[in-house]
Amino acid sequence: MEEKKKxxxxxxxTRNTADFSNMTENIYETVAMLTKRANQIAAEExxxxxxxxxxxxxxxxxIDEMYENREQIxxxxxxxxxxxxxxxxTEEYLDGKIFYRNPAKESAEVKQAExxxxxxxxxxx
Length: 125
Hints:
It is a single chain. The protein is mainly α and 125 residues long. 65% of the residues lie in helices and 0% in strands. The chain contains six helices and no strands. It has helices spanning 2-5, 27-55, 63-67, 70-80, 85-94, 103-124. Helix 2 (27-55) packs antiparallel against helix 4 (70-80) and helix 2 crosses helix 5. It is elongated, with a radius of gyration of 23 Å.
């Protein structure tokens, strides 16, 4: 998971907002989609971080040992330096790696197509 994140720039970049409405044709829908993807990425990172920290956890830690566990501190520092989930989600979107589907739009399009089919049948009859 960390290997794929190294190519994401860890700084803020000025971007063209027109690029964000290509797939959805609505900038607000794009922002909602990116938010959901960023939350997924953050949940994955959190789960990975906790799994790695738990590897160094012992059952009889004293308070002094908990604050001085260097391995855990190094792992946390590495995760803190990783790109933010919002930057990763944005890069995935701009690279076309995010699959997007809006069921509400799809059902509206199906209903519209059915209405057109009904009209055609009426005209042909």
